Automatic annotation (TrEMBL):
It comes from [Clostridium] ultunense Esp. Keywords: Membrane, Transmembrane, Transmembrane helix. The chain crosses the membrane at residues 9-30, 36-55, 75-98, 142-160, 172-189. This is PAP2 superfamily protein.
Amino acid sequence: MKYKIAKIISLITVVPIIAFFTVLLSFIYGTSYSGGIGWLIYCIAFLTVIPLLAYPVHRIIPAFRTQGRKIERKLAFIFAVVSYVIGSILTFVCGAPILVKKIFMAYLFSGGFLAFINKGLKIKASGHACGVSGPITLLTNLIGLKMLWLFLIMPVIYWSRINLKRHNIRELILGTFVGIFSTLLAVNLF
């Protein structure tokens, strides 16, 4: 039972799902400078839909399916980072509102720093922890301190990832700080 609960928590807190709710809250509370429904759909497409496509691609293509969870995780990361890069470039090319630029820069910086730490430095940092702490930091920056209570979700994420044997506490803490730091850096540049 404990494993099933941990698995459910893990599934509903994957980065693209958290991105969906982050974007939705950002647009609800930041409507005066969000740029309207078109930019909302744009954000959902690049931060949720395209990154989630990694999971059906993993299941559909036999060469990926036979490689299991490791390649699924890799595909999810690749789909997300490529989508963040393209989405970020287009925000500048298309003259997106500042809210949209901040959201994309936060995700781009988080993905970039996480890739550098995981691949470049060969230190495993939790993408789940980064993918939750960064958006909470973003929401706190965009909406206000009333969003700080969302950090209460972090111990639940930690519990889930440790029980699934996906991360240890060090990897989770590192992922959390990557999310917070990269998001603060991104939003303060704009």
